């Protein structure tokens, strides 16, 4: 497997000097995803190349499973018979074989995933129906409950658990925490969508979904499709270091998810689902309503 980092020669220039040096970069390479599944009405599986995504090598099986789960191709780990990593004509390849009881419109799925890449997952979709993007089951209201101090500490815990970012400064991260702020798992990738897919794919394969107490933390902004991926996994709380988009806030609010943005430097904003975040004792109760 290709390393997640590579060393390059650079010229480092300051106001007063120039020198030759080496720098460590995060690797970005293509991953081809192939699915073997039965189409509706067919008795046998057919193999279809669904698309290529640009990603940082590592956890490729989890990335493929997370992406297929997010797109509704699979709904549980038991839908998957086998996941194989190989070399294809475009480089690294993951082949996912689905069970005989799973049927997939491979043409529709291929069109949906053909545009998948590290920077944009929703590109190319003709329309967005926020109401139709509900989680598999309604999220429990008010669960989990998060103390402000826990939310304040998530960004530092996320940053402290990013091994490749610490060496390159070039990767996004996504992590799952519990309501006490304990880190359950973390994944990194050059693409923020990929980091979330890797994380959710790992949780699905490990049988840790759904988890009514899960908190998803992302290192960048909270865009619409990251909220969609979290809802698909029935994650009730999403916290972002950066800003949410208007559509992300609308989607979270429509389906009872708690969405927190700007969680850094001792502050954060709650954009949806405020009932899950406790109010500091010093704040009057009417300010929380």
From TrEMBL:
The keyword Nucleotide-binding does not apply. It is found in: Cytoplasm. Gene3D superfamilies: 3.10.20.10, Cytidine Deaminase, domain 2. One of its GO terms (cellular component) is cytoplasm. InterPro entries: Cytidine_deaminase-like, FdhD. SUPFAM superfamilies: Cytidine deaminase-like. This is Sulfur carrier protein FdhD. It comes from Sorangium cellulosum (strain So ce56) (Polyangium cellulosum (strain So ce56)).
